[in-house]
Amino acid sequence: MDITTRVKEIFQTLHAIPEVGFNEHKTAAYLAAELGKAGYQIRTGIGGTGITGVLDSGVPGPVIGLRADMDALAHTVDGVEKCVHSCGHDAHCAMVLAAAEVLAEKPPAKGKLKIVFQPAEEKLDGALSMIKSGAVDDLEILFGIHLRPIQEAKSGQATPALYHGASYIATAAIKGAPAHGARPHLGINAIDAATAVVGAINAIHLNPADSWSVKTTKLHAGGPTLNAIPDLAEMAFDLRAQSNAAMDALLAKLPQTIENAAAAIGATADVQIRGGVPAAEYDAGLTAIAGEAIRAVLGEAGLLAPIITPGGEDFHYFTQKIPGLRSAYIGLGCNLTPGLHHPDMTFDTDALPQGVAILLEAVRRASS
Ligand SMILES: [Zn+2]
Ligand SMILES: [Zn+2]
């Protein structure tokens, strides 16, 4: 079977069985079975539903990985909740599996190939759960790929570097003291403290040359009694930065800013960092290889410049948490409309064999 027919066949199979994060049981079973048939040593159930497939040349050399995410998204369409592959993760798995099958027939002469199918990218902790299991510690080189909306890349175009930003969520519980509305001096108004916090958050400054932002996204205070001083305010904050250094600086400033602003009113603050994802940090050499691979498949006109996107991706945990791992992440144009995470998302499936060819070229160049 030719590559175009095969990758489209895999895509159709996965597209028909969308499953949300950590619930990708049918998807994982299918991918593991196909990888096994191709000759890979399979491990399943990694960090939930994750899979690895290894092809060992037996000759010392780099461990090169191809990673795809398996999960779909829940959408409400016409009042009915259903699961849809609206972020194209079915396409990513199809391209990586089809590439893995070709590589099994013509493997690199040295090192190991490691295929990584991860759960729960949309929940932003699927990559972390696989990393924590230790099953991907040996990766030295890792390529990822994601479909791009038509506004960023059209069919026949691809970028060798998709720069996702870092994004984190924090919350704070502001505690004051209750009192009668007639005697505010006997209490501590949590709303006064919370508004002081909003002002202090807006007065945080990092180097304007870096791209970053922090803002209050929730302020909930006061109960059913409207003539009493409220003693509790619940707050949330959204943090963004295009570099991990800027995000580290924001995360370091945030708790003291909130605590000190609340303390100015006499209140206390319990600050929690609820989680997030790091920013993209790519290896220049591998990005160059990804660019050469794109040029080889799509021609000079198809090679786009790096794309900066404010969205987050948990792929970057692999690079951040695995010492020495170098990564590159390709964005594939495919006339995708109306957009990612839209329940009616569609794209030109003729881009799938192009994605497979780019991955194969990238692995060939990285292993030689
Ligand atoms: Zn998504
Ligand atoms: Zn996605």
UniProtKB/TrEMBL annotation:
Residues 174-262 form the Peptidase M20 dimerisation domain. Pfam families: M20_dimer, Peptidase_M20. InterPro entries: Amidohydrolase, Bact_exopeptidase_dim_dom, Peptidase_M20, Peptidase_M20_dimer. This is Amidohydrolase. It comes from the Bacteria.
